[in-house]
């Protein structure tokens, strides 16, 4: 269990660090599995709508910056004209 900064409450933590380095350690210690899932959904939207490649170093750096902003509070990009799918 972790106190999730994104959700503002105690929740189940991640099983392992999702990213290497300092950001991955911070996410592991301060972000819940539920919040990480929400980030992955947003990341997928960014990759698809902005036509990003996770293997491109510049795109990967951008996605890491967006992950930090999304999970810890900051300005988060959205794709113009994006309409989420109906559930």
Which features characterize this protein?
7% strand, 49% helix, YggX-like, 3 helices, 87 residues, mainly alpha, two-stranded antiparallel ribbon
Written overview of the protein:
With 87 residues, the protein is mainly alpha-helical. Helix 2 (33-49) crosses helix 3 (57-72). The protein has a single domain, classed as Fe(II) trafficking protein YggX (YggX-like, Orthogonal Bundle), CATH 1.10.3880. The protein has helices at 21-30, 33-49, 57-72, and strands at 2-4, 9-11. Helix content is 49%, strand content 7%. The protein is built from three helices and two strands. The protein has a two-stranded antiparallel sheet.
Helix/strand-derived class? mainly alpha
CATH H level, superfamily name: Fe(II) trafficking protein YggX
CATH architecture: Orthogonal Bundle
- The ordered string of helix (H) and strand (E) elements is EEHHH
Average the pLDDT over all residues and give the rounded result: 91
Helix content: 40-55%
Widest β-sheet, arrangement of strands: 1-2
**Uncertain segments of ≥5 residues (pLDDT<50)?**
none
Radius of gyration: 13 Å
Q: How far apart are the termini?
A: 29 Å
How many extended strands?
2
> Which CATH class?
Mainly Alpha
- Looking at CATH, which topology would you report? YggX-like
Using the alpha-carbon principal axes, give the shape.
globular
Our count of helices gives 3
Sheet bearing the most strands, described?
A: 2 strands, antiparallel
Number of self-contained structural domains = 1
Question: Strand-residue fraction?
Answer: 5-15%
């Amino acid at each position: 269990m972790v106190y999730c900064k994104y959700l503002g409450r105690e929740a189940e933590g991640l099983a392992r660090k999702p990213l290497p380095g300092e950001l991955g350690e911070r996410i592991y210690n301060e972000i819940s599995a539920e919040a990480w899932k929400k980030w992955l959904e947003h990341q997928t939207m960014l990759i698809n709508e902005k036509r990003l490649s996770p293997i491109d170093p510049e795109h990967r750096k951008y996605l890491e910056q967006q992950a930090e902003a999304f999970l810890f509070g900051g300005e988060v990009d959205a794709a113009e004209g994006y309409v989420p799918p109906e559930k």
